[in-house]
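Board notes (copied after class):
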Amino acid sequence: MSTSSTASVSTHILDTSIGRPAQGVPVSLSAHGGAGWAELGTSATDADGRCKDLPAPPEGTTHVRLGFDTEAYLSAHRDSGAFFPEVTVTFAVVPGEHYHVPLLLNPFGYSVYRGS
């Protein structure tokens, strides 16, 4: 949850090729600080394709990164394997704001956006 001095981040994944959530995809959250990138925590998508337990970035964080390890999910659901074995999304944050960043995934493409 965000506070006046921190942001908060959530995400979910929709497999657009089947119109269903992508369950069991590992997700990591990292923050950029003075010494570069530091991983804050990891999770995995639930049956609804959501990660609800990602930690809040530390106070003063201005850039965060979501890492989606899509290889096992795509390989298990496609004959052709994973064209995108991972997806990394980096974005700017402002303290006090919540950022919901969904991943729309299919075998040969993906899209992200700031949701609500």
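Comment from the instructor: The chain is about 5% helix and 45% strand. The first strand starts at residue 8 and ends at 15.
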